[in-house]
Amino acid sequence: MSQLKRPYILAIESSCDDTSAAVLKGTEVYSNCIANQEMHALYGGVVPELASRAHQQHIVTVVKQALDKANIAKKDLSAIAFTKGPGLLGSLLVGISFAKSLAQALGIPLIEVNHMQAHILAHFIKDVHPKPPRFPFLALTVSGGHTQIVQVNATDSFSLLGQTLDDAVGECFDKSAKVLGFTYPGGPHIDRLAASGNPEAFEFSIPSVADLNFSYSGLKTQFSRLVQTSKLHNAQFIEEQKHHLAASLQKTIVSSLILKVLKAIEQTGIEQLTLGGGVAANSGLRAALKLVAKEKGFEVFIPELHYCTDNAAMIGISAYYKYLKADFTDLSVKAQARFSVHS
Q1: Cα 144 to chain center, whole Å?
Q2: Is residue 76 located within the same domain as residue 149?
Q3: What percent of the chain has pLDDT over 70?
Q4: Which of 89, 148, 222, 239 has a CB 3.0–4.6 Å from the CB of 163, allowing a cystine?
Q5: Closest Cα to residue 294, out of 312, 310, 271?
């Protein structure tokens, strides 16, 4: 296979609080290295200024690790890919600046990638699925900053069908976990507690939003008010009920997502669905989607956990398809904090 079809691409992801670099040859991942920023747990969420500083500290080391693990020299690279957005502006700037400098030094193309498109195209990484989804398919992407349903017509054709109007699922999980006294990120704490809780113990209203859109600010408020009010009557309420609270919240969120998925399938007639984004690691959501897919007769594609959270391999696979079309960018490219999936 020619170099054109099987390029070596170094991909860089720095949209939020994880610094990641990966090397791909075509659709095959040779390395996928990530440096996490654990200090944000002290502040209950990502602090943008601290995140950008940490990216500056980590990026050289992470890129070197990715090249070393892939056993690839810089001179063998065909292109440098990076996340243009969406994300935290300061964090994006670190990745973009590094990618520009390296591409210019090596005299190779620069490829910009939409972070949300990358979550979807991660399903086309070699060995993620025995048979990847066929176009067109639906994609449910759920994370700390995004909740959306997208119709994917091709590797470069995305139609946004619905999205959150306020808080995303991940934010609802994180803020609710904070009410229970857990550190950031809160989603994993809710998932762990829910495994041994009764999902019927507390009743929360499923957000009612028109069309295929979502809203989780009201649910977040419901949860917080219930906990705070109950604590006035029982100081041990959280300790006694935390498992049941988590299970009930998780059930409500998962139910809301599945209702929208089924509505999207009905409206489009498309019976293939992919799951992506950090919240795609939630065990309750993964299990519920598999069950409803079996019951309703549609096909669901769920990636391994390390391809759910932010990682550079998903940036690399997106860049690969752009490389095949010579869809390169120049040094005037700028970070874009707000960047729609269909941009």
Answers
A1: 8
A2: no
A3: 96
A4: 148
A5: 271
